[in-house]
Amino acid sequence: MEAFRQPIILGSLVVYLVLCIGVGIWAMRRTKSAGDFFVAGRSLGPAVVGLAIFSSTMSGFGFVGGPGLVYSTGISSLWMCLTSPLGFALGFYLVAKRIRIIAELRDTVSLPDIVAARYDSELARFLTAITIILGVMGYMATQILAMAIVLKTLLSSTVIFADISLITCALVSTAVLLFYSVTGGIIASVYTDLVQGAVMVVAGFLVFITAISVFDGGMQEASTVLFADDPEAIMPFGTAGALTCISWFFLFGMGLAGQPHIITKMMMNKNLADNRSILPLSVLGYVMAALLWISVGLIMRSVVVAGMENPLAAPDQAAAAFLSVFAHPLLAGVVFAGLFAAIMSTADSFLNIGAAAIIHDIPRALRGRALENELFWARTATIGLCVIAIAFALYSYYINNRLVALLGAFGWGTFAAAIVPIVVLGLNWQRATKQAAVAAVASSLLINFFIEVSTVNIPYGMSGGFLALVTSMIIFIVVSLLTPETELKPDIRAAMEI
Amino acid sequence: MCGRITNKSAKSERISKKLSKGKMKLIYIVLGLLLMIGACVVGVFLVEEPAASTGMPHATIEAMRSGGDGLARFAPVNTITLVMQSAIFVMFGALLYMGISVRHRTRQCKFWITAGTFALLFVWWAIYGTYSDYLASGELRMFLGFPVPTAFTIYGLWLAGFVFVIAYVVGFRSFVFTKQDEIAYHELLEKHKRDGGAD
How close are the terminal C-alpha atoms of chain A, in Å? Predict the structure, then answer.
């Protein structure tokens, strides 16, 4: 079996990619309108929505960057994923019900639609759409780069594709993503998310079992090895320190309810009462997949510290190194497919909300009405976004990574700072005003840009996104209290009182 | 008939104002907690930062970092850390409570939200306390594969967060989305359709 390791891994990947293409073709027949393309006609069952929400949350970062961070900094980064039950709970208690009701009442297809309906403000819609586009570009570029690097790593170890270029790998992997995203829109996206989520859960569980078996004494022996080398690495705040961890916990916990690609999926379920099973499904799926994040990083750090394996050249190699050394070839195949799944499930969600912002929200904000033939333009915008993202990804890899780093600043942190106040607070507090919504979004963009551009030194490694989120929430509440109360539209008021 | 409609409308207005007032109080609590977190952040900026407060490169292994002297870097901010994370957990509880419709804030709902918030606070104080004890004594005690403070972090934070997930499932028809809410929701949709879906 060991002799066939590489063919098995590649075979798993090919099967997975073919499956994605198949889902795209199937979903194309069900996509007849812009509503189908963006919100699946609000007709999805709880299992599909539950797995789609968690698999969109667990991006390639969770499968590659997460274990890498644990390898590099010990326990610190676990504070990002340990907040997940609380983060998902916040999303469902504060957003899921009201966003679904307003979506149905106003026939909305995007988060900026919800914002415009809540605040009766096209400026708030416009700023939310701009935030989404900036964030999507940064996220997409990094996801495409991650897909290309993983594919190149796998293919270059074979005889036939030994010299394959990164550009070819970027084009091939993005072509599959683009195919099912363009043909099937969000329907293809959520059904591939279903497959991707299932693969991630299986991969997370099996890798965890494998990881704790590496040392005869299990995790306790690994902890003892780490403690002997550097006690702080295995203590609750890791090497990064307490305030870094707390700021991550707040940003990732609170911020989850402000991620547009996640909360947009809360508009897609057929029955509102299905939220009762969607929340536990999402949380359990995420926790199972996160077992990989936790176990692989800690075990790889332990085996390197113990001298059982050579040090890694870069922390992000932790997952791949673990799989090549400790995992059964079949498991390695499943996990590499899971890795691709994690990246693609997030990327397709971003393509979808990015296309909606471009062809639906910005025209509505500027012209007061949507484009004719939105479905055609949605598909065109999806292709355009992908092309630009590939260009950014390759530019950052070959020439200068500053641009993607800047756009990356408009990732999780900016989404959290811009959207948490106006959606999480705004949908639950009738006194919130449109002036406050505009101020919160604008300030979050400015603060994140300032922190990134000025390279200001924040003490104790506190996250810039955390500072932006706390500030924008304060600004939102204070400006709402200082500006005159505006009368809500009766349907919005009724939706907020249910 | 007209009088009945007026009375109904006035009653609806009163309920609406009451609901709005109910949420007003909570928003002041949330604002207060945010300001407390903000004050802690200002405090962090004012405290002198020790070297390697966020770790240092590992002595022998490239691409790996070490934490160094835990006591030296935790001592200047240990109280700020305790207060800030406590405020964050209380704020999470307040926000979750804010997500419940005012008319459904029953004893059962209050029990679950309070229990979840106290579970989070208990876990946090346990993490803080056991870590402080370890820094003072240097003694390593293990629980289920990890040092005790880390075990509280990994198992405790996850499990405490699950209290709110369980509450959502168990209390869904009692305080999240009741049968009456479902009826009101469908009536609202029908009314909206009758009115031509006007914004």
Answer: 58
